[in-house]
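sry for the spam today, last one i promise. struct tokens for design, 202 residues
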């Protein structure tokens, strides 16, 4: 591996970690705001959360992508095979050749392992010039955090890597009007790595 490849990998890792950190920050801030009206982050609609994350990434575009020349595109169809993607960013190639050309993120709030794998399949059909992230805000009882079946289901997928600062994802206590007891929200973020022989363009 030459120095250019090593630098590109470092830049991509930095981008992914910054995006994951922003997702966690948005989840925590939205939960604080929702608590003021007796609700929690686990009750937010997926597209509302996707929009809030997109706005935060757009506001920090130069730090995340290394350029302010990015295009924020919520609910966008990237290719005929991928369907509608919750959140897409396209990066202008001029002056930013070290960066990925785009970023695609799918979100789930709660849900089942089957629905998570459906979103992973959708992301795998997106061209490889996009970095791909899957984010799930997972409802879990405090005693079940480390053994949630949905986390295990995604972890078992080929080419999927956790994006987290420690051994486990960030989590915090939250409210849900459908439950008498307090729940935890796991902010689970994964990166879908490049696949050998995968499609490079639309």
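last one done:
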């Amino acid at each position: 591996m030459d120095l250019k490849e090593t630098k590109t990998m470092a830049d991509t890792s930095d981008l992914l970690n910054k995006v994951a950190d922003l997702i966690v920050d948005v989840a925590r801030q939205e939960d604080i705001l929702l608590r003021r009206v007796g609700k929690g982050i686990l009750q937010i609609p997926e597209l509302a959360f996707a929009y809030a994350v997109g706005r935060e990434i757009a506001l920090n575009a130069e730090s995340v992508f290394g350029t302010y020349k990015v295009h924020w595109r919520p609910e966008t169809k990237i290719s005929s095979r991928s369907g509608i993607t919750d959140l897409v960013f396209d990066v202008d190639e001029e002056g930013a050749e070290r960066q990925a050309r785009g970023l695609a993120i799918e979100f789930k709030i709660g849900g089942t392992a089957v629905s998570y794998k459906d979103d992973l399949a959708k992301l795998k059909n997106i061209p490889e010039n996009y970095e791909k992230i899957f984010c799930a805000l997972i409802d879990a009882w405090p005693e079940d955090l480390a053994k949630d079946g949905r986390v295990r289901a995604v972890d078992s997928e080929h080419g999927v890597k956790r994006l987290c600062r420690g051994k486990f994802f960030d989590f915090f206590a939250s409210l849900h009007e459908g439950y008498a007891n307090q729940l935890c929200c796991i902010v689970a973020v994964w990166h879908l790595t490049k696949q050998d022989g995968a499609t490079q363009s639309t």
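The chain is about 35% helix and 25% strand. ok im logging off now
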